[in-house]
Queue: 2 jobs
Job 1
Amino acid sequence: GAVVSQHPSRVICKSGTSVKIECRSLDFQATTMFWYRQFPKKSLMLMATSNEGSKATYEQGVEKDKFLINHASLTLSTLTVTSAHPEDSSFYICSARGYTTGNSYEQYFGPGTRLTVT
Amino acid sequence: DQQVKQNSPSLSVQEGRISILNCDYTNSMFDYFLWYKKYPAEGPTFLISISSIKDKNEDGRFTVFLNKSAKHLSLHIVPSQPGDSAVYFCACGSTLGRLYFGRGTQLTVWP
């Protein structure tokens, strides 16, 4: 149980275009979803937290107009990178938290999406 | 400001021996602690967790120890296996809040 999927796993796009990444909780209802970005040799950087049906809360320094997050249902959240630039190239990972084993604290991570902007 | 620190970027252990990964945190409000394992180009995988009301939690070869007074937790893997080679992240958080991650420790288990 507690499986989280992400799609696509890899995407290459041209500078100036937008890219949408989907995150789905497959076997549980995710009350909260998180979006992270991982830089080489660094920890996971939390970008934003989203609760189903409400606006995402962005971490300091993350542009909300550039990284659009929608948490439309208890099993789906999307991250759209708008007007992508090469510096947006990174590994984006989502995680979901919900009542899976009677414990709501654990976050389960998706497999990640490698974005390359050319 | 790094609230969660893993001071050893790497650890090398022989197969069959114990691996001990350490983590320190600064926020006394944290009441839930987790360890994740991560392979390159994959998302982290949940390993084991512990709440602040306990000082030890065991799951198979993995044991997490929590020392609240020292704000320190550790992950013990025994016996270590080559398949355990990965980056291990420590994560700390408070009730239903966000998690704060350390920078990870690369564990290499050699035959």
Job 2
Amino acid sequence: SAVISQKPSRDICQRGTSLTIQCQVDSQVTMMFWYRQQPGQSLTLIATANQGSEATYESGFVIDKFPISRPNLTFSTLTVSNMSPEDSSIYLCSVRQGAGDTQYFGPGTRLTVL
Amino acid sequence: GENVEQHPSTLSVQEGDSAVIKCTYSDSASNYFPWYKQELGKGPQLIIDIRSNVGEKKDQRIAVTLNKTAKHFSLHITETQPEDSAVYFCAAEENNDMRFGAGTRLTVKP
């Protein structure tokens, strides 16, 4: 199994500012994902983080708002830019080795935007 | 793309009773079906999964059944305990595309 840590675990931010969330995995993984979970809701995929190239974004999510980096096979960052209260959510990092393999989730980052 | 529906949205049972959560999916090519448990303030944790070549899988008090013809799969928890209280998510995957159900909030009353 993969052990995933995220920093910060929670934050309260002012609107208009940006926050970068870090995801660290204890082993090399092929695939890394970023999800958003709004209060009481299911998991919505933001993007797949690709090592050495631009992330692949899902419909409704754009790079300018959610820039993602993945410098190696164990680390990724998600930035939430120019935040508004609507961005208040839990952001989850997730990893797996390939199709049909177990997918693991980090503990999440709880973001509140005032 | 894949669409996963999950029922019920909330479920309350007495300790010791069984709980069943059902999911349906739309893409017949889906071949991997995991279930996650999410406790308050934590990330989802995999509790059991099943692949399309298997009809049933059991792990102690938890079991999952899959009906590929009808395109539905279910989570069964027997002898429920208060610590089973959480939100449960089903998911279906086809070719690296994982889709999640809306979640079921299970409450086990002591």
